[in-house]
Amino acid sequence: MGRRMKRPLAARILLAAGLLLLASAVVTLLLGDARLLVGKLALGVAALAAGALLSGRDGLSRSLRGRGTHFAAVTAASGLLLAASLGVAGWLAHRRPLALDVTGQELHTLSPDTVRTLAALPRDVEVLAFYRPDDAAHAPALDLLRRFAEQGPRLRFELIDPYRAPELVRRHQISESGTRVVVAPGPGEARLRELTEESLTNALVRISHPDRPRVYFTQGHGEPSPTDAARPGWSLAARALARENLELVPLQLRGTGEVPADAAAVLVVGPRRPFLDPEVATLQAYARRGGHLGIFLEPELDPGLDPVLAGLGIEAGNDMIVDPSPTARLAGATPAMPILRATTAHPVSTPLADVGVVFPTARSLVARRGAPARAVPLVLTSESAWAETDLGSVFAGTARLDEGEKVGPVPLAMAVSWPVPGDPPREFRAIVAGDSDFLTNGYLHLLGNQDFLLSAVNWLAERDDRIPIRPRNREASRLTLTEAQASTLKFVAIDVVPLALLLVGIAVWLSRRER
């Protein structure tokens, strides 16, 4: 009796499975794998045949007419409708993708600088990337280029298999350990060894700005060197400026008597010894004719630039900032190395309002009257900070707020600009910061320090379109799949798993009805 009861149950389950397999073939068809479709159809027909054999003619007729079959058909139809809806949704998502980046570091979102660079491309640009289909870098390169093309209507790309295009490999001198990506047209193609958001954006910048503005930096006063790779040097900052297509040129004011006419800006970075009076006069004359100055000071040192700062309406205090904020201490800062808040009062600092910068051992700045325009604060300390006038107590760890000392928020960097009449008319621009250590190799990587420096220098060079936050090197854990593996994974997740759950549900329901 038990076997007779189990045999009709098995037949019904096989019949239901066969019908589900056949009906759900539409989902497999949308996935686009013909072999899986054929296999599924064959399996469905086999299940129907087995169910029919187990039922016999009379049993099959009773099964088809029974109320259980009706309920099973309704359940199966509902399940298939759901599976088909999921399949259609997946197909539409493949044809019309809508991306939502939920990663903590926004790994799949282009930075504001990249988006703005793409929107400002002056001409059509073609990117040729040479990667084999089985290369581990092929899929990430395709993903990145697609995102660039979606944001930049003037950018086209082609992913080339170097083994199938030997003539292009020879023409562009492509090699496995050398150039892999070519960006053209431009004044000499931009050539890249590896494809990242930062490298490709910098290549587009060189194409968009073929002229390299010359930014001069003063020497002869103990300034750190842009070629020094040690911690006190600023070689990393120099390389970052070069990627912005800016040319750094040394400037000896002593003996020259004037700043070269081709100077887009002059930087004074952390002088240890005072400027001579003729050098100060040269900088003042440069400012009067509409030049652009970037002055980065240090506490405890007097570079003799007070007359220049007075002409800008800025006064640098003989002090050092102390910030005992517990929030900054939790972030790894020290009282003498405060985390600063960028203001939204100026284009240089606005993109950094949610990022902040770090100035190690900085002196305070104050806006004064007498200049054609009032200086605008770029970064401010917290309210708990103050400007300590007893510098020895800062290093001894005994600094205390005394009466008459400036209290936070204290400006540590300021910008000023005004029109200069002439033919053609010009705009004088200047940025003064109470710290220069932030741009050295030891601190450039902290928070928004590099973005602040690059935005400041680009603003001084009148390249306002280069001010947004730049892309960072962001690492993600990747699982590289072959096309066959990806197809199998989709088949299991979208087709097999929902169908298996539905079959188990029907089998449980049929077995309970037999009891």
Using brief descriptors, characterize the structure shown.
515 residues, alpha/beta, nine-stranded mixed sheet, four-stranded mixed sheet, 17 strands, 42% helix, elongated
What does this structure look like?
The protein has 515 residues and is an alpha/beta fold. Helices cover 42% and strands 16% of the residues. The protein is built from 15 helices and 17 strands. The strands form 4 sheets. A 9-stranded mixed β-sheet has the order 6-5-7-8-17-16-14-11-12, with helices on both faces. The chain has a 4-stranded mixed β-sheet with strand order 2-1-3-4, covered by helices on one side. Strands 9-13 form a two-stranded antiparallel sheet. Strand 3 (181-184) and strand 4 (190-192) form a beta hairpin.
Given the C-alpha coordinates, what overall shape results?
elongated
Could you give a short account of the major beta sheet?
9 strands, mixed
- The amount of helix comes to 40-55%
Distance between the termini: 13 Å
Count of DSSP-assigned helices: 15
Contiguous runs where pLDDT drops below 50 for at least 5 residues: 1-5
Number of strands: 17
Rg estimate, integer Å:
34 Å
The secondary-structure class comes to alpha/beta
User: Which strands sit side by side, in order, in the main sheet?
Assistant: 6-5-7-8-17-16-14-11-12
Mean pLDDT: 82
Our estimate of the beta-strand percent is: 15-25%
Structure summarized in a few sentences:
By secondary structure, the chain is an alpha/beta fold. 42% of the residues lie in helices and 16% in strands.
